[in-house]
Amino acid sequence: MAGIFSKIIAGEIPSYKVHEDDKHYAFLDINPNAVGHTLCVPKKEVDKIFDLSVEDYNQLMHFSRSVALAIEKAIPCNRVGMTVIGLEVPHAHVHLIPLQAMEDATFQKKVTLSPETFQQTADKIREQL
Ligand code: AMP
């Protein structure tokens, strides 16, 4: 059965889309550490990121880099951090998080955003791609 990220990629579940190519999909995390927290996902559903083939892994990193550079231009931050966890959703993904301080990387501090702010944030990042 398709997981939640495959359903998002298929458009069966809504998301604030940031970017897409033939093999990857990027969208805003719905429970973000900070404004602009984005997930980059390979369309092929593989659970653990290090189980991807070397080629698929490198392509995910390449895709994530281009999204991170766009986030850095669109969202005021000290730098964009990259984290891999995967304890909640068993579909490989990279977290890209605009960081002001270490606590933004801890997944302890969360921000609540309105649908309008989510949409404006996704639009701002997309404009930089
Ligand atoms: P993890 O698997 O531990 O790396 O965490 C999965 C991440 O996916 C969490 O940060 C969730 O907030 C995020 N997430 C779960 N469901 C959705 C969704 N429907 N749309 C956007 N982000 C989601």
Flag low-confidence runs: none
Question: Can you name the CATH architecture?
Answer: 2-Layer Sandwich
Helix content: 25-40%
CATH topology: HIT family, subunit A
Brief overview, please?
With 129 residues, the protein is α+β, with helices and mostly antiparallel strands.
Report on this model:
The protein has 129 residues and is an alpha+beta fold. Helix content is 31%, strand content 19%. The chain has one domain (4-127): HIT family, subunit A (2-Layer Sandwich), CATH 3.30.428.10. The protein has helices at residues 4-9, 54-74, 115-127, and strands spanning 17-20, 24-28, 38-42, 79-83, 94-99. Strands 1-2-3-5-4 form a five-stranded antiparallel sheet. Helix 2 packs across helix 3. The longest helix has 21 residues, at 54-74. The N and C termini lie far apart (32 Å). The structure holds adenosine monophosphate (AMP). Residues 4, 13, 15, 29-31, 39, 85-89 line the site of adenosine monophosphate (AMP).
Which helices and strands appear, and what pairs or packs with what?
Layout: H1 4-9, E1 17-20, E2 24-28, E3 38-42, H2 54-74, E4 79-83, E5 94-99, H3 115-127
Antiparallel strand pairs: 1-2, 2-3, 3-5, 4-5
Helix pairs in contact: 2-3
Bound molecules: adenosine monophosphate (AMP).
The site of adenosine monophosphate (AMP) has 12 residues, from loops.
